Amino acid sequence: GNSVTQMEGPVTLSEEAFLTINCTYTATGYPSLFWYVQYPGEGLQLLLKATKADDKGSNKGFEATYRKETTSFHLEKGSVQVSDSAVYFCGGSQGNLIFGKGTKLSVKP
Amino acid sequence: DVKVTQSSRYLVKRTGEKVFLECVQDMDHENMFWYRQDPGLGLRLIYFSYDVKMKEKGDIPEGYSVSREKKERFSLILESASTNQTSMYLCASRFSGRRGNEQFFGPGTRLTVL
Question: How much is the average pLDDT of A9-38?
Answer without folding.
Answer: 93
